Amino acid sequence: MPAHSERALILAPQGRDATVALAMLTEAGLHGIVVQSVPELVALLGEGAGLALVTEEALTGADLSALADWINDQSEWSDFPFVLLTQRGGGLERNPAAARYLQLLGNVTFLERPFHPTTLVSFARAAIRGRRRQYEARARLEELHELATGLEQRVEERTAEHQAAVAQLHEAQKLETLGQLTGGVAHDFNNLLTPIMGALDMLQRKYGDSDPRSARLIDNALLSAERAKTLVQRLLGFARRQTLETKAVDLGGLIDGMRDLIASSIGPEIDLRIRHGADLPAAVADPNQLELAILNLCVNARDAMNGNGTLTIVADQLAFGPGSQPRLTPGLYVRLSVIDTGSGMDSETLARAVEPFYSTKETGRGTGLGLSMVHGLAAQLGGGFALSSEPGRGTRADLYLRVAEGGVARDSVDRRRQPLLAKGRALSVLLVDDEELVRVGTAEMIRDLGHEVTHASGGVEALARLDAGLRPDVIITDYKMPGMDGAELARRIRDTLPEIPILLITGYTGTTETTYGLPRLSKPFGQAEIAMALAGLVEPDDKVVRLQTGRRGTKR
């Protein structure tokens, strides 16, 4: 029944778990219904549902035979999703019962308590998206059955389509699960890195000049934090959860800067050769995602050569006219080629090489997503990707990137040496964030700039302070918060106090169409970045006052 197809069935008989979970899902716009027992769950599953949210203790000691029968008797198109709330996660070492639940439930995601409300909602939405794909597959399968005519040729064609539809469904589910999990981890890391980077930034500016040894240690810690930030960005790119940040990139300089990383990744027995012209034009790319793509190609080449051979990386410029390259728009391109002397591929393997999850490596040595990621990145950048190979003669991977107009976009200042910028007058700031560590760390950075900060742990508390008469110069709010997110808080404030500027800070990795053009500052950030954001927020067209040209900042 359509009314039942996407509802969440909640089986949590102990305590307030069911009530709390239902409230979280309802607030997120999802329909849920609470059930009291396993037999009732099975009965409602038969009527239709989008997912089931079950606590581990609800299954412990219960007769699960009817549930197991229902799961095993699902139609070919169906792989019903479960979210299992546990106290010890899904790891076998901490939770030996996880293997039993995995075998019983099949398509199950383990969610360990305690969890953030946005994590539960994100898991539920991912499960419903997967269920919708199953319904689409069902429609295609039903259509195939109705078109059966008894002619052998048509039966064979429809059977092939049937198999392709089922395979596509399972691959889409794998990608959805991978993206959801990776995105959630990245979101948490962004929140963890924000107070770390902020504290290190402040310590460096205050004490770095007076203690060279401390300055070196803090520099190294900041560098590690920056690398962690870059790693998070690469994870998001791998999971397709981050919008590309394209700019003009010096491809030759990027490859030269990766030489040590590539060499350590492929091993000492492989001869690494890098060639590019000094006059190579800039290319349109996201440098972080491009680095990840190059590294993927190099690691694939290493595996194809069994750790011994020659790996050549070449960058050159090409021009394509109309019809000369059917997969590329006519124009100027920079071609990046990764060439190995490995075992090569036959025509059948080459034809499937960029398919998601297709891999010729043994189990445990690859996900089958590397070449698919490179192919997808090239398409997003308006370029192309091509493979050529023969058995015994190695493989050549060519990545085509559009030539950028104008020069290379370069960062003018190292962030770890960036001077503090702020308005010349002190500001009163209302800071809203549900994560205490982020809220306290951000407040200290702002106070150190000479501003006054008032805290609020959520949208409701922030509105209450404003209703009580608080009139800050600036409001800074987190985006993803339980109950009321930053976009909704900003909308309500604009209805009554449109003159107060609002800055959105976010470690969220999904879509933010509802933010209505609010200025944003992505987590993690340092003191210089929050200072510049404040200065631009109050009077974006005015000049700002430079407080300090070195590392150490003082309040004025």
Automatic annotation (TrEMBL):
SUPFAM superfamilies linked to this entry: ATPase domain of HSP90 chaperone/DNA topoisomerase II/histidine kinase, CheY-like, Homodimeric domain of signal transducing histidine kinase
Reactions that this protein is recorded to catalyse: ATP + protein L-histidine = ADP + protein N-phospho-L-histidine
Matching InterPro entries: CheY-like_superfamily, HATPase_C_sf, HATPase_dom, His_kinase_dom, HisK_dim/P_dom, HisK_dim/P_sf, Sig_transdc_His_kin-like_C, Sig_transdc_resp-reg_receiver
Residue list for modification 4-aspartylphosphate: D478
UniProt-listed Pfam families: HATPase_c, HisKA, Response_reg
Residue ranges of every copy of the Response regulatory domain listed in the record: 428-538
A single GO molecular function term of this UniProt record: phosphorelay sensor kinase activity
Domain of life: Bacteria
Gene3D superfamilies: 1.10.287.130, 3.40.50.2300, Histidine kinase-like ATPase, C-terminal domain (3.30.565.10)
The EC number(s) this enzyme carries: 2.7.13.3
Keywords: Phosphoprotein
Enzyme superclass (EC): transferase
Residue ranges annotated for the Histidine kinase domain, each copy included: 184-405
Name this polypeptide is given: histidine kinase
Native species: Sphingomonas gei
